[in-house]
Specification:
- This protein has about 450 residues and is α+β, with helices and mostly antiparallel strands.
- It has two domains: about 180 residues, 6 Propeller (Neuraminidase); about 250 residues, Rossmann fold (3-Layer(aba) Sandwich).
- It contains nine helices and 25 strands.
- The strands form five sheets. It has an eight-stranded mixed sheet, with helices on both faces. Strands 13, 14, 15, 16 and 17 form a five-stranded antiparallel sheet that branches. A four-stranded antiparallel sheet has the order 1-2-3-4, with no helix packed on it.
- A hairpin with a 2-residue loop joins β14 and β15.
- α3 packs across α4.
- The radius of gyration is 23 Å and the shape is globular.
- The mean pLDDT is about 95.
Length: about 450
């Protein structure tokens, strides 16, 4: 706590390695927070804690080692609303003297808290305005004692930024054909008002429509070019605990408008489909994600949409890992493009920041006990198996994944007589921020596909 009149900062709690979501009760007597400890990540297990604001022992209202509370807000002086998943789904609960599931459905009301300050729900009117549903079908609803009333309109993606006042809920939302924009929704009428200034978008004919597919239990959205069979690029999202939302994506349109199909795979480990789907990746990173991407690619070939000899894979960060892992551990893809990619997991675990420093305990296994598994999965150590060329793109100021991960992988490819290329970008970190970098990276990627998949 920081005294407003001045003075030293006062430490209120030291209960966990990580804390988020501090909330003071309406009467000012209690504080609630969400905490967790290494080696857990917040989507593995967290605790919703409550303590007297003036000091004293805390109590755990919800959560545990295998239950993930991701957001909490006070309903009144003694009761909290919270998103947690004891049933295997991030549902909305009431937590007080007793605990009650307000939304007992197989749908996700939360997401992976990669950053603090997420608001997937907000008390509003006589209920709670909340986001729910899988990627591509994300909805805004009003949860009351009568059930869930849909307020979503035609939007398919929402940011975790809800707020409410005066009978209106405000959020950030998008459709497959419009970018994220500020939207105000009336709780009474359900009418939507777009609050942002309109942004120019390409002609609708250049924007592909998403097709939701499930291939052998793997979820994906496919964006088709005009001609078939065509070369297809499998897009792999980062995280890996995350997902790819369905919204206007100009990168996808850039490729489909040039004759390349795109398949965006929400592989096992992705959020939005319940804990069981998320847990498919436990100790299986580098195998399940690779297999799921290959399944979707082969499914496109079987449907006559994709040319089996012209399949590519691309991704950034954890998606870059899956890209290079797919090249060395499968024979499905002719080439890959990896942005700021992890290529050697054991060295990365020692280099990265505290928040993710034990992430690989759950994704691969704890060290040193499972060191052989790390070596078996490492794309760097198996670069000689690469099924095709690889283009690596990396920012020189990346503090999450050091550029050395890319440099060593390209060197290993070259030593084994394989084709590898590295483009670096001064001033860029873990993701592109400069317009000139975005343009250069996309143009280099397209040229790479044209050379390899021609």
């Amino acid at each position: 706590a920081i005294p407003l009149a001045g003075g030293p900062v006062e430490v209120l709690v030291k209960a966990h390695h990580f804390l988020m979501n501090p909330r003071i009760s309406p009467d000012g007597r209690q504080i609630a927070w969400i905490g967790w400890n290494h080696p857990n990540m917040p989507w593995d297990g967290t605790e919703l804690c409550v303590a007297p604001l003036g000091g004293g022992d805390h109590r755990v209202g919800a959560g545990g080692p295998a239950e993930s509370v991701v957001q909490a807000e006070w309903k009144d002086d003694d009761t909290l609303y919270a998103i947690t998943d004891p049933t295997g789904w991030w549902n909305l609960y009431e937590v007080g003297a007793t605990t009650r599931n307000l939304t007992p459905v197989q749908a996700e009301f939360g997401g992976a808290p990669w950053k603090p300050g997420n608001t997937w729900f907000v008390p509003a009117g006589d209920g709670v305005a909340a986001l729910y549903g899988p990627p591509g079908e994300r909805r805004l609803g009003l949860v009351t004692e009568s059930g869930i009333r849909d307020l979503g309109g035609d939007f398919t993606a929402w940011g975790s930024t809800l707020s409410a006042a005066g009978g209106v809920v405000v959020g950030v939302a998008a459709t497959p054909y419009t970018p994220m924009e500020v939207v105000a929704v009336s709780l009474d009428s359900g009418e939507h008002a777009r609050m942002s200034a309109a942004k120019p978008v390409p002609d609708r004919s250049l924007i592909p429509a998403p097709e939701a597919v499930t291939v052998e239990g793997v979820h994906a959205h496919v964006y088709h070019p005009s001609a078939t069979p065509a070369p297809y690029v499998v897009f792999v999202h980062g995280g890996p605990t995350g997902n790819h939302a369905v919204q206007l994506d100009l990168e996808i349109a850039y490729f489909t408008s040039r004759g390349l199909g795109v398949a965006v795979v929400n592989y096992g480990g992705s959020t939005g489909y319940g804990r069981a789907y998320r847990e498919r990746l436990r100790h299986s990173w580098g195998t399940v994600d690779v297999e799921d991407c290959a399944k979707v690619a082969r499914g496109l070939v079987e449907r006559g949409l994709a040319d089996a000899a012209r399949l590519a894979i691309r991704g950034g960060s954890a998606g870059g890992w899956t890209t290079v892992a797919a090249l060395v551990h499968s024979d499905v893809f002719a080439c890959g493009v990896a942005q700021y990619a992890i290529t050697d997991p054991e060295s990365w675990a020692a280099e990265t920041h505290d928040f993710e420093s034990r992430y690989l305990d759950g994704l691969i296994g704890p060290l040193p006990e499972t060191r052989d598994r790390y070596a078996e999965r490492s794309p760097l150590l198996h670069a000689g198996r690469a099924s095709g060329p690889c283009l690596m793109l990396h920012g020189l100021e990346d503090a999450i994944v050091d550029v050395g991960q890319a440099e060593r992988f390209v060197s290993a490819l070259t030593r084994h007589g394989k084709q590898g290329e590295l483009l670096t970008f001064p001033g860029e970190q873990h993701g592109w921020r400069k317009e000139e970098t975005i343009v250069a990276a996309l143009e280099a990627e397209l040229a790479f596909y044209e050379a390899v998949l021609r």
